Amino acid sequence: MDNSQSYLQELNRWADETKKTLENTNLPENENWIETITDWKASVIRYLEQGEEIMTEDLQVLQDQGQRILNSMVNYYQMDSVPYGKHQLPPLPYAYNALEPYISEEIMHLHHDIHHKAYVEGLNKAEKALYLNLKDKNIIKHWLREQAFNGSGHNLHTIFWFNMTPNSTKYPIKEIKHQLDKDFGSWEKFRELFTNVASSVEGVGWAVLLWNPRSGKLGVQSIEKHQLFQLADSIPLLVLDMWEHAYYLQYKTDKASYIKNWWNIVNWEDVNNRFVEAKNVKWKLY
Ligand SMILES: [Fe+2]
Q: Which of 121, 123, 232, 244 is the most exposed place for a label (fewest CB within 10 A)?
């Protein structure tokens, strides 16, 4: 038997062993991976059955495919990154009715289960089109816009859910308290400024407290259109959803009450954790 044949048999054995391991686990998506490996194994077997010397280039292609499958699988199960098109809706860190009376259970259901889910699905679709299967290069702009819109929507909602808690300290704490005092004069002054930013958002957008590594200061900003994300390079610490779906059902046009009540459920522990992590990012200051 020549070298390429014995190498093919080795690949075939690897496919069998990996499939067996996956079959014996309850890992998520294991059926998809088994299917992928079975497809690849079929090509290996085709060459084996020909029983002839395989061209070096063909062997290389086969080997690369196997390596890619293995890398994606390791990547997927280690969860050290989110594979393209595989974002998931994070579960709420509290019950749907936990933020009542400030935000109703009905809003939380619609907001999380319908609106946030739609962003996750839109982002996955955009990533698949951009990174895995770009068929029409002429519409790349469309998919970039979809990625920005849905990606910002997914990220901001994820921050938003954790930014809130039924057990709010009601006042900033620890490092973030000191920085708010340092940069804005006092917590009350910051709250007034942030409230004004939130009120200024017209219908669809967000109010954001952010850390600006370029100036070494906290700042506030509104984000009015996800696809035109301003202040790239900055890290949002605290966000308030001012899209109408976030409050209209309960507060109708009384945007001011929504903002005022929302301060009762801010999770300052979370804001502080985000701040401490974000401060590790060190840009050269300009
Ligand atoms: Fe929202």
A: 232
Give Cα separations from 227 to 83, 141, 150, 161 (angstroms).
22, 11, 8, 21
Ligand 1 centroid–CA 204 distance in Å is: 9
**Taken in order 201, 248, 102, 116, is the CA torsion positive or negative?**
negative
> pLDDT tens-digit profile of 76-119?
776 667 888 989 999 999 999 999 999 999 999 999 999 999 99
Amino acid occupying residue 17: E
pLDDT digits (tens, 9 = 90+) for 14-60: 889 888 888 887 777 788 889 889 998 998 998 888 877 788 888 88
> What tokens appear for 39 in the block?
């497809």
Could you tell me the distance, in angstroms and rounded to a whole number, from the CA of residue 16 to the centre of ligand 1? Answer: 46
Instruction: Answer yes or no: are the C-beta atoms of 239 and 274 closer than 8 Å.
Output: no
List all residues 6 or more positions away from 15 whose beta carbon is below 8 Å from its beta carbon.
37, 38, 40, 41, 44, 66
Measured CA to CA in angstroms, residue 137 lies from 124, 131, 134, 146 at distances of 18, 12, 7, 15
Rounded to the nearest angstrom, the distance between the alpha carbon of 128 and the centre of ligand 1 is: 23
Structure tokens at 119: 């962003």
* CA 107 to ligand 1 center in whole angstroms: 10
* Distance between CA atoms of residues 131 and 116, nearest Å: 22
pTM confidence score? 0.69
CA of 267 relative to ligand 1 center, distance in Å: 18
